[in-house]
Amino acid sequence: MINFKSIPFVYRLGLKAKHKIWSDRTKKNIKLYLKQPGLKALHIGAGHNQIPNWFNTDYLARQNIHFLNTNITFPFPSKSLDYVFSEHHIEHIHYKDAKKMLAEIFRVLKKDGVFRVCTPDLTKYLTSYFQEDPLKNEAIKYVMSEWIRPGFYNAKNYSPAPEQENISFFINDIFLNYEHKFIYDSKTLIALLREVGFSKIHETEATKSSIAQLDNIETHTGVIKQFTLAIEAVKE
């Protein structure tokens, strides 16, 4: 079997064709979705997490998960959505692309629409390294067993042995694995949200929201949510 990834030109051509088909399908489904009565909400970077009554999207199209490239203009009309939710997605794109994405989110939200974003919290990770944290050992054990040891696919230069299960691997994991591009603290992310137009912004707990439609919709739960930054921004 030919590995088309080994032929960059052919691979890029095939990917472009695939994205065109997926994009056309997404645009068609958006029109149908917006015609339906009720909640209008966009889920970015859904993975396999299908939120009922939301328009669930990802860079990889799946059944009931629509294709969306967040680096370009969204195929949604301005002021068409009540909510937008992004869970552990923004850290996978470059900072400059994140700014473009947030500007698009601001554009497609209705007045008083809410954007909820959850992402690894730089402050919490670094605090766990420099200070004693009661969750540290539990977190290390969880990440080592569930994430780092089975994968570590984007940090092939090292794979920790059991006796090396310490906080340094936990910190490096969030920077080097999963094709992460930028890890945010609250100050940086809030400043970026303000820059694109949001003015009413507040931190909230991971998996918890005072807004029913945004409460407990994350899949990153358990001990790892203690290292998650969750922010909600309202378009006034």
Could you say what the CATH architecture of the largest domain is?
Answer: 3-Layer(aba) Sandwich
Assign a percent range to the helix content. Answer: 25-40%
Oligomer designation: single chain
Rg over C-alpha atoms, rounded to the nearest angstrom: 19 Å
| Low-pLDDT sequence parts | none
Biggest sheet strand order reads: 3-2-1-4-5-7-6
Query: What sequence of helices (H) and strands (E) makes up the elements?
Result: HEEEEHEHHHHEE
Q: What's the CATH superfamily of the largest domain, by name? A: Vaccinia Virus protein VP39
Counting helices, strands and paired strands, the structural category is: alpha/beta
What's the CATH topology name of the largest domain? Rossmann fold
How confident is the prediction overall: mean pLDDT? 85
Straight-line distance between termini = 54 Å
Protein name: Methyltransferase domain-containing protein
Organism: Pedobacter fastidiosus
GO molecular function, one term: methyltransferase activity
Pfam family, one: Methyltransf_11
